[in-house]
Specification:
This protein has 299 residues and is of the alpha/beta class. It contains 11 helices and 13 strands.
C-alpha cells in the first residue's frame, strides 16, 4: 500500500508542475486586461525628488526606475506606460480598487491593514522613519522628548504609518495631505520638524540644497520607529497571480550580483543621499518558486 501511495504521489507531482511566468500571466485578470489594452497603468507620486518626481514633463527617481524596469520585464516599453498620479495615501489605494491603475509603485508601506485592500509584492526597499529640521533648530530639537513639547509643531502626512508611529511615541503630529506641504511649512516656519520615511526626507532636502544653494536642513539621528518600514509594489486585491509575477522579477533582481536592475536604479537616483545601510536590495517576502527564468512579452 505504501508503495502504491508513493507512486500515486509521484504521478501527481508529474501532472502538477510548477507555475511559470506564462501560466501566471494567463491566470491574472489584471495582466490579461493589460495585454488587451497594450498599455500598463502605473500609479506613482510626482512630488518627491530623487524618489518619484515630475518636472517639465520628465519623470525621475528611484521608484520611477523600478516601475519602468518592471514594465519592461512585462514587455512594455516607456511609450506603453500610462502614468497615474497618486499623491495622497487614499489615492494610492483607491486607484487600484477603482481599476484606474494596474500596479502602484509609490512609497507604500506593507501593513496588515493595507493588505486587506490590495496585494503586495516586495519589499523592494526598507526604510526607517526619521525627522528633518532646520539647522538653526538642531540645538533645541535633538531628542524625542524635545519633539513631545507642546510648542513644537511636527508635520507628517495624513493616515500614514509615520503618523501612527509619532502617536505611539506620544509626539503630537500635525497631519497634512502631501509631503510638499510639510516641506514648504518647514521652510517657512509653519512647522518645526517633518517626520516621514528617510528617502523622502533625504530627497527633498537635497533638492532644496540644489535649488537654493543653501544647506538649510538636517536629519536628526533619532530612532522614531522601532523597525524599518517594508515598501512594496501594490497590485489589485485578490490577483495573487500578478503579485507572484511581480515578486518573481524582484526576486531575480536580488539574485543578480553583477547587473542588478534594482542596484542600477538605486545608484543613479536616491542612493548617493542615503547611508550605506540601505544600499542593497532587501530580501523578498515569500518569493515564488517558478519553473522558468525568462521575461515574457505581452500575451
Amino acid at each position: 500500500m505504501a508503495v502504491l501511495l508513493a507512486g500515486a504521489a509521484a504521478c501527481a507531482a508529474e501532472e502538477d508542475p510548477k507555475e511559470t511566468v506564462d501560466s501566471l500571466r494567463e491566470k491574472s485578470p489584471t495582466l490579461q486586461a493589460v495585454a488587451r489594452r497594450a498599455r500598463i497603468r502605473i500609479g506613482v507620486r510626482e512630488d518627491i525628488p530623487y524618489v518619484s518626481y515630475l518636472e517639465s514633463g520628465r519623470r525621475t527617481g528611484f521608484e520611477i526606475e523600478i516601475a519602468r524596469a518592471l514594465a519592461d520585464e512585462l514587455g512594455y516599453t516607456e511609450d506603453k506606460i500610462e502614468w497615474v498620479k497618486v499623491e495622497t495615501l487614499p489615492a494610492r489605494l483607491s486607484v487600484l480598487q477603482q481599476d484606474n491603475a494596474d500596479m502602484v509603485v509609490a512609497s507604500l508601506s506593507m501593513t496588515a491593514k493595507r493588505e486587506e485592500l490590495v496585494d503586495f509584492a516586495g519589499p523592494y526597499q526598507l526604510v526607517p522613519q526619521q525627522v528633518l529640521v532646520r539647522r538653526d533648530r538642531t540645538k533645541t530639537l535633538a531628542t524625542i522628548a524635545d519633539l513631545r513639547r507642546k510648542d513644537v509643531r511636527v508635520c507628517t502626512t495624513t493616515g500614514s504609518t509615520s503618523e501612527k508611529v509619532l502617536g505611539d511615541k506620544k509626539i503630537e503630529a500635525q497631519p497634512v495631505d502631501t509631503n510638499k506641504a510639510c516641506m514648504d511649512g518647514l521652510r517657512d516656519g509653519t512647522y518645526d520638524a517633518f517626520s516621514t520615511d528617510l528617502p523622502i526626507l533625504a530627497g527633498m532636502a537635497q533638492a532644496d540644497r540644489v535649488e537654493s544653494g543653501e544647506d538649510l536642513f538636517e536629519l536628526l539621528d533619532l530612532a522614531i520607529a522601532d523597525e524599518d518600514e517594508k515598501i512594496g509594489v501594490a497590485v489589485p486585491d485578490g490577483d495573487s497571480a500578478m503579485r507572484k509575477v511581480i515578486a518573481w522579477y524582484l526576486h531575480r533582481w536580488e539574485a543578480d550580483e553583477t547587473n542588478s536592475r534594482w542596484q542600477r536604479a538605486y545608484d543613479k537616483t536616491i542612493g548617493p543621499y542615503l547611508g550605506a545601510r540601505y544600499g542593497s536590495q532587501p530580501h523578498l517576502d515569500n518569493p515564488p518558486d517558478l519553473a522558468d527564468y525568462d521575461s515574457k512579452a505581452p500575451r
